[in-house]
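Worked example

This section walks through a single chain of length 526. The input is the sequence exactly as stored; nothing has been trimmed or padded.
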Amino acid sequence: MAEEASMNDKTGGGPGPRRTAALAVVAVVALLTACGASPSSSGGSTVTGSAAYRAELAFAQCMQTHGVPDFPDPNPSGNTSISGQPPANSPAGRAYAACKQLPVGGTGTGSATAPATASPPGAVATDCLAAQPACYTPQQLRVAYSIQPLLDRGIDGRGVTVALPEQAETGPAQFPAATDIRQDMADFDKRFGLPPVQIQVNTTLAGSSASPWLASEEELVDTEIVHAVAPDASIREILVAPAAVSTPAKFAPTFAAYVRIAVGYAAVMSQSGIGQDFNLSEDSWTSAEVATMNAALEYAAARHVTVISASGDEGVLGNGSSKAVKDVILPASDPLVLAVGGTSLTANPATGAYLSETAWNTLPGLPSSGGNSDGSGGGLSHLFARPAYQDGVPGIGATRGVPDVAGDASGITGMAVALNTTGGSYVLKGAGGTSASAPFWAGLIALADQEAGHPLGFVNPAIYQIARGPLYHKAFHDVTTGNNTTVLTVTSSPVTITGYQAGPGWDPVTGWGTPDAQVLIPLLAR
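Given that input, the structure is written out below as tokens.
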């Protein structure tokens, strides 16, 4: 029997996501004994409860959860210096691939430091809105992608449920801190004038120690973005124990389980947070694991549920890759998934009016997430034949091309999300990574479902039909600049892997591009 909690968020006061540097707030280097290095005191001190210590502890606990139970906790009385990198195919390497979103910065040696960024209790820090360039409010994002005209005529997602598989949290003693999603959403709604969000939580897969209302940054970002795009849609959080998705062998059956849960509740499922933390490149999976996930997606498609997945944040590399080869990730590469890549949006800072877009890529510069450089995942599958809806599309050969579409993934100029900080204040940060663009599209499909009066289900054929028709340049912003070249940094010396170029029409960086929702949604709903 599913265990659930529900809310109509009228109570409470006031990056990317775990993988996205835009939402990270501390630099951490904590790769210790289990990863081929050793902890040592550098003569400094790390105060228990400080941001640096909490960050190191969070990384250690993540490694322990993901298959390295003897990974040592940090020493509260001394800084940690490290060296080395775990082999990618070792238990420590697989755990590091799942947890590396926590360390931000660091080159493999040195000590952890954390800036003092906490605001006084009750203070409101609107840093990303005040920054140059600034992030966008939900209202500005709606204007840029022509969502607002739909909302103005009552197409707001009402009657549609969006399912969000998310990592279950067990307590606030982690960094970034897990906070009560009811209070966080109340602050977000009040700040941006949104109606109260309606959330239900399913804990069937969460484990006995999970707290249903505690949410990570990833869960908050997914929820706030869906709510901003489709403010009257219901949201169903499906909490998943981290250990249940810590390896491909565990992930595949768990994915199948939560897809089936989602089918029972929702018309749309966005694979974002769980997908970014734990999904890996295609060569990480056995044929049996791939078949298990594909069978679940067939089950969803047969029941008219749209499954959306982030295409990955490491450019032309598969997530967690240690090989200098082009790859795509699962489940985004499955032909039954609407795969979403990333862009960097430029809109009028006063009105939100659309100006331009380019492919999202953090290069040139240093890697921004403590691992390979960040950029829109995309390329050509090694596992799946080209689906019929991609037949004849220039740039796609005999195999599935990824992604299908894209959305804003820039952590610098992403949509502002409200996050609780230590001390009870809120900060606004730009949501980034394809784990922000995927829930954006989940909100859009919720609008299309409402417009149609029924769940649209597997939308890929309709997307491609529209994009190949005469209204393409009205229904989409064709993103024609940028690339997803990336730098592999887990090797002894950094290796640049030349990616694909964005160009006219479909490309393996941004797909068909981003939506002009006022035109696209009615076309999808036909």
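What to look for: The first helix runs from residue 51 to 65.
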